Amino acid sequence: MAESNSDRFPVVIDGLVKSYRKNAPPAVNLGERVEIGRGELFGIIGPDGAGKTTLFRMLATLVTPDSGTAFIEGTDIRSGYRKIRTLLGYMPGRFSLYPDLSVRENLDFFASVFGKDIDENYSLIGGIYDRLKPFEKRKAGKLSGGMKQKLALCCSLIHSPSVLLLDEPTTGVDPSSRRELWENLAGLKESGMTIIVSTAYMDEADRCDRVAMMKSGRFLTIDSPEDIISKFGKRLLAVRSDEMFRLLRDLRSMDTVSRCYTFGDSHHIVLKQGAGVTAGSIARELTERFSHTGVEVREAEATLEDCYMNLEEK
Amino acid sequence: MIDKGDNVIEVRNLTKKFGDFTAVDNITFEVHKGEIFGFLGANGAGKTTAMKMLTGLSFPTSGEGKVAGFDVWTQSELIKKHIGYMSQKFALYGDLTVKDNLDIFAGIYGVPPRQSGKRIAELLDRLSLAGERDTLVRDLPQGWKQKLAFSVAIVHKPEIMFLDEPTGGVDPSARRQFWELIYEAVDEGITAFVTTHYMDEAEYCGRISMMVDGRIDALDSPSALKRKYGAASVAEVFEILARGAKRQD
């Protein structure tokens, strides 16, 4: 049972269901049992309204499930909220700090709630907090987006939790700060912390040990990024021309193309099963039939983002 | 000011100071009519402050600027009427229907009633919202609210729309759908001024500027910037430029 396994699996999700409204489909509707290992970095991706935030809130003992349960370090979320809150760090997606308190006061407050001293656990947050040091006296409400995020992370770590829940921690954060955050998470994982993180960025999901794709309250797949990518199983081409928007429409009108979407400086096309075409024949068709100029077509390797774009079709 | 008729934004030495802190430091640039202009930079680089001056919400400390042909010093109310604005935290009236929201914003922007009916029907149709015209906005799924917020921002066919991180926190599929709305609006002649932290979206822009410590340190097409900095992607260009930042976030 979950209890005896709790050393290996600090988080066990067991058939969690939660509805907010009668007659509406449940926000979370997980039939299965999911065990998350110690030191695992577990990612959750999925569209808006998939149930990610509700799942986090249940794990953080802020929302009670209708049925099913979960265990944090062997403690049942339905009955053990006092214990669980000392074991858990939770960073909600929305700003969760006290805007009228200074940076330092926020940190002091969160430490004191758990009866901790900042110095005691400083090593956990040092790498992040050092960047905030020059602004210790500034009110949290006056910080820029990236700095708020850093402070919120420090506040969720200051009691040295064994499990960390991060609900879209990088929304509104610039690329350099995102990279820094993920370097910090790698360090926390190294120290044995178990981390569950939701994100809209596929390059971040790529850095997780396993990724759950969530939709309509359910996990559609749970796999390592490598396995998700290796199961892609479709032929992918990257296409460019001098008129990218028209190219998108033209590619979609082609019989051999099952799906076409923008992908940075190219468009990716997924070819229909058995479509007898080559990169060269697609390029010729675009040039001759659609009068595109500057056409480039090459075979492309699937990424996690391609898998996401195609998963949704099902 | 330079007098090129085909620029929707013209800015010369625009500066904004708060006390002894220079949030926007002497920026000079133009946005051409009909282009998608990506306004990039790290958190705290000065993008929001610059956008406030360009949308008529705050006055510069010094410098000159024209937006949609109107002066940022003397015609800020006219600027507001001729631009569209949408941010990630868009504001719609939840207790009103889709159609009523469009009606209200068309009225606020002074679209003549005879034209607004046609325009609203056209937008509802183009964004596949026609079936939802009498639905209360609070009952719409998030993705549709976003589409509606976009329609509201362009209901008066502004010369330029400012999109401030319109896709923050949005999943890969919905982000792409949103960008196709931008492309379509640009097709109809609206210029787009977009901020984003998604570097793949920066690749969709005609030209991008990179703000560092209140300055614009680079401005060109994505491909030209990649060549100049020997980078494989705009993400790399961003890292190279952001590394030079002195300002702490």
- What would you give as the CATH superfamily of the largest domain in chain A? P-loop containing nucleotide triphosphate hydrolases
Please work out how many helical segments of chain A DSSP would assign.
12
Adjacency order of strands in the biggest sheet of chain B: 6-7-8-3-9-10
CATH topology of chain B: Rossmann fold
Largest interface: A-B, 38 and 40 residues
- Listing every helix as H and every strand as E from the N terminus to the C terminus, the arrangement of chain B reads EEEHEEHEHHHEHEHEEHH
Number of strands of chain B: 10
Q: What's the arrangement of strands in the largest beta sheet of chain A?
A: 7-8-9-4-10-11
Distinct helical segment count of chain B: 9
Q: What overall geometry of chain B do the principal axes of the alpha carbons give?
A: globular
Number of domains of chain A: 2
Helix content of chain A: 25-40%
CATH structural architecture of the largest domain in chain A: 3-Layer(aba) Sandwich
**Radius of gyration of chain B in whole Å, from Cα?**
18 Å
Helical fraction of chain B:
25-40%
Q: What count of domains describes the coordinates of chain B?
A: 1
